[in-house]
Write a structure and sequence with these properties.
It is a single chain. The longest helix has 18 residues, at 102-119. Strand 18 and strand 19 (388-397) form a beta hairpin. Strands 3, 4, 5, 6, 7, 8, 9, 10, 14 and 15 form a ten-stranded mixed beta sheet that branches. Helix 2 packs across helix 4 and helix 15 crosses helix 17 (554-568). The protein has 19 helices and 30 strands. The radius of gyration is 29 Å and the shape is globular. By secondary structure, the protein is an alpha/beta fold.
Amino acid sequence: MTVSSTLYEVRRLFAPPPRLKVSEWADRYRFLSPESSAEPGRWRTSRAEYLRGILDAFNEPASETVVVMCSSQVGKTETLANVVGYFSSQDPSPVLFLQPTLEMSEAYSKDRLAPMIRDSPALFEIMGDRPRGENTLLHKQFPGGHVSLAGANSPASLASRPVRILLADEVDRFPPSAGGEGDPVNLAKKRTMTFWNRKIGLVSTPTNRGSSRIEKAFLESDQRRYFVPCPHCGEHQVLVWSQVKWRPEEPSRAWYECAKCNRPIENSSKQKMLRGGDWRATAPFTNCAGFHLNELYSPWRSFGDVATDFLKAKDDPQRLKVWVNTSLGETWEEQQGQTLDFEELAARAEDYPQCFIPKGGLLLTAGVDVQADRLAIVIKAWGRGEQSWLIHWSEIFGDTSQPSVWEQLDDLLSLPFEHHDGIELSVSVAAIDSGFRPQSVYQFCRGRHSFKCIPTKGSGTPNKPILSRPSLQDVNVRGKVVKNGIKLFTVGTDVCKSLVYSRLQLMAGQQGFMHFPQGLPEDYFAQLTAEKCVTKFIQGQPTHQWIKVRTRNEALDCEVLAYVAAVANGLSTMNWDRLRSKLFPSTAAEETKPKATKPKGSIKETGRGFATNW
């Protein structure tokens, strides 16, 4: 070997790594894992060309913050993974990756980060074979830095070592405050203050207008949008939902109509359009690069897929909200502070008697609200498209700490109700609020055999799921866990109330429409509409809260609980054809239409509802 060749080898070994942008690093070194990708193998930014501009924004010296407000199915999760990989391998730095909860961070580490390290040699070389003490589930070390994963709900994880790179995923799902410490995003930003070359990435699907973190951050950015050329006339334009067209009988074959030449653009032209597109700022630049994307750009979703999803969601405001957020990447505008006219609701009562199940009802559930001197009960029938019929509303008066009141409730919930087609149905699941008299509720729910009974506890946390997995086991009067006891279910009351209010405003025939029988007292409708949703600021962050406009709201709480009981019984995935076949095995039974009759037992009207006498 000559001296010149030896010097060349020495220079090559000690030379700094090539200066690459994030997208170039990903194309050269990143490999997708089979656990987390439908297209495992080498990463190709050209597969979704619009991601190149987002990735390379982290290399722009003037851009301290990168904001991505987008829909689902556009590659945002893999975008963040590429940024983590780049600042681990190419430009080693301390990195903080922030998720809404600590549990989600742990899941991301196991399901996303660990496979990426394993399958990308450039990352495995620096992080894959470290001593056990250096690499943990939430902390990965490498020469020159580390990757720490944290939950926005954990103040402790936001108050440790400084970081240069902050990546916050799904910021609209962050709690308003990390414990009592304040806004988790601002807390995390403070950890970057010692770095002059810090980078902050905020990424999320948006939620409600006015309280969306990602929308606020995007509006403070230069608001870049991806312009793509029409394959017919060459006009560059932003893809918007209003230009998606389809024939009524074939929504799955929808096309995009050019805003200039009005010629149809088929989905087969999308990749060519994406390759010819470019990001253009629509607002002045400060130090924040902002990007907006919707699902129409996704190479993994066709125009027809988006149109089909829209048609499934359009008649249900709650599903439509999800579609607007996750498909269009836009915020949903709630009608803040609006109250419903209970007299108008009362006037739309239908021609069926109470305690009788109309033809469409196939499943009975109940919701029970507990007060000191009464139990309020709603029993509802459910059918296709989540339409519901109120079957029974009553209040059982008495001291709810005494067994006699609960015995009356047991009799009521065990009562058979006659169906329009001649059979009798009873309550399948009852949900009872345990916020008041929890031990009495636990005792009642324990050992029920004629119907399933679940104790619940409401949570006002924004965007809390309608029904969470049980987190607390049943406890006895001494506070000790009961072996094999029942479990407590957490209810997202804000989400449930929003759903009930949105369905009260539907037109007859729409999915989720709520039917009411004749003879209900006006007080029931007053209680049902006794709250309104308003925006309040908690530690500087806007949040939606439900407040009372009338004193009594038991009917609304009962409606929420009856829906929760239906969800617990599999409402969203119910096979109604199979259920109907099970209930009506013979054709003769299906054709029978007896007159409405009252169920067994004596039920009489009172001034404020229906009291039961047994």
